[in-house]
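Hello Y.,

Per our agreement to keep a running log of every chain we model this quarter, I'm adding this entry. I've kept the format consistent with earlier entries: sequence first, then predicted structure.
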Amino acid sequence: MRASKMWPAAALIGLATAGCIPSGTEPGPVGAGGGTLQFSEARISDAAGRPLARARASNVSEGLRIEITAEGLSAGTYGVHVHAVGRCDPPGFESAGPHWNPTMRQHGSQNPQGPHRGDLPNLSVGANGQGEIAFIVPDAQLAGGVGGMFDADGAALVVHARPDDYRTDPSGNSGARIGCGVFR
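Predicted structure for the entry above:
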């Protein structure tokens, strides 16, 4: 007779409930009052609901790390920004509000009065539909204090139709909002 390995009951309970706990929290999500948010994710879609990209924001020692991966964008270069409101009402996504700017700076890393926290590098997408960027927003974190991305109305990531010029206030001359995703 062959012996089978038995999983401890606690491990099985942990596996069975792992999908029921909101990701990125320890032990509760934003607003639950129970824990500290460690990461947040956003699924960016166009006005018709088609997926365009994914974003992940996480606390790191240097600040807030944001990673964006293109999923359904055409080849080209796109401005991407963190917006101050966690709403993405189509078709124009104006509900996401202005860029995240708790320090009241102007737009753009090449602007002497900038940048603000919502300014991100451009996302380049190849002919194969793939593109990724990862970067750090210094002196920022997901929640709490002046550097906190989350406040009472949340935050969103918006993809714009054109590249950001990194200097024109308020949005880098990056054009229409073509995609939006709420950080959760």
